[in-house]
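Thread amino acids onto this structure.
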């Protein structure tokens, strides 16, 4: 009987020790796993940044403060657009999303995100060698959301810009997001003529998406 009691105590001790070990592993594994994932994510972001900086330049002063669309400026734009008289100097076309929209000169009062696809102040025109033609527009469901379908684009999709009786053809090479801070950094190859499109990220209130096209 005494030996039987010892065996029971021994088995209970083993079972208790087993559950203690399991509990310790479970207790420490969850935070360790989270820390490991955070470290790996930081490493991935660092590698991505290094890859970008190794072959591209950064333009960090492209003003995007007016990208946010509101109901008020949508109604004003729709009403004013009926009265506006202006001429386009060129056209942006992206066949895969059936986008075809004109743009006015940088000097025009209607080069405004509440009227048209807008040429950024920092942009070069399409005929500038190795320049960067930067266009901005709203996304979403508003009347002025000319870039509402950009989120459907995939790497390799093509776009064209008609300007001064010449058509410039581009291919999408890079898509990335940045937080809404009023400016965006543009990562591109400075030796290739570029088309850059900027809009608010689809179904995201906190980020903007940048689409980099290189001339074909």
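Threaded sequence (216 positions):
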């Amino acid at each position: 009987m005494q030996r039987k009691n010892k065996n029971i105590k021994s088995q209970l001790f083993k079972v208790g020790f087993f559950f203690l070990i399991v509990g310790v592993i479970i207790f420490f594994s969850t935070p360790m796993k989270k820390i490991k994932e955070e470290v790996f994510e930081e490493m991935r972001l660092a590698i991505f940044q290094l890859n970008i900086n190794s072959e591209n330049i950064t333009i960090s002063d492209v003003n995007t403060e007016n990208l946010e669309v509101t109901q008020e400026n949508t109604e004003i734009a729709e009403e004013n657009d009926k009265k506006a008289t202006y001429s386009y100097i060129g056209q942006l076309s992206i066949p895969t999303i059936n986008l075809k929209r004109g743009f006015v000169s940088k000097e025009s009062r209607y080069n405004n995100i509440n009227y048209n696809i807008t040429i950024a102040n920092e942009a070069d025109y399409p005929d500038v060698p190795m320049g960067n033609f930067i266009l901005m527009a709203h996304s979403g469901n508003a009347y002025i959301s000319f870039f509402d379908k950009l989120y459907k684009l995939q790497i390799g999709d093509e776009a064209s810009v008609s300007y001064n009786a010449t058509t410039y053809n581009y291919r999408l090479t890079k898509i990335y997001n940045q937080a809404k801070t009023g400016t965006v950094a543009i990562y591109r190859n400075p030796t290739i003529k570029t088309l850059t499109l900027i809009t608010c990220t689809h179904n995201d209130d906190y980020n903007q998406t940048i689409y980099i096209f290189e001339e074909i």
